[in-house]
Write a structure and sequence with these properties.
Layout: E1 2-9, H1 18-41, E2 45-49, E3 55-61, H2 65-74, E4 81-88, H3 91-109
Antiparallel strand pairs: 1-3, 1-4, 2-3
Length: about 110
């Protein structure tokens, strides 16, 4: 299954001073980015951050929503980023569903 994750930095991802930002970067952002990079290398993730921004769109491959939740929990980014997750429907499945709908509509006209 593929899932779209829209990620945007939240207030916990932005410090009030250099020391807080250093801590956020070393404890949350950089470790989380390393995990995302490993998922990308393993073929489980595609996408990236918007240039010059702290927001991203990624597509993650996972066996289920529960597995994805578990994967996302391993990210230290979760404390610094909010994520909206949307399950993606394969194009073939959407086509099949719409063709079945069309057949139903065609048979009701007869």
């Amino acid at each position: 299954m593929k899932f779209l994750a829209l990620m945007k930095i939240n207030n916990d991802g932005i410090g009030d001073n250099d020391e807080e930002n250093r801590k956020i970067l070393t404890e949350k952002i950089i470790p989380g980015l390393k995990i995302l990079k490993s998922w990308e290398a393993d073929g489980k993730l595609d996408g990236g951050f918007f240039h010059g921004q702290r927001s991203a769109v990624i597509i993650v491959e996972a066996e289920s929503l529960e597995k994805l939740d578990s994967m996302m929990d391993t990210l230290h980014l979760n404390g610094a980023f909010d994520a909206d997750i949307i399950e993606l429907q394969p194009i073939g499945d959407a086509l099949e569903k719409d063709e079945e709908t069309l057949k139903t509509l065609d048979s009701s006209d007869a």
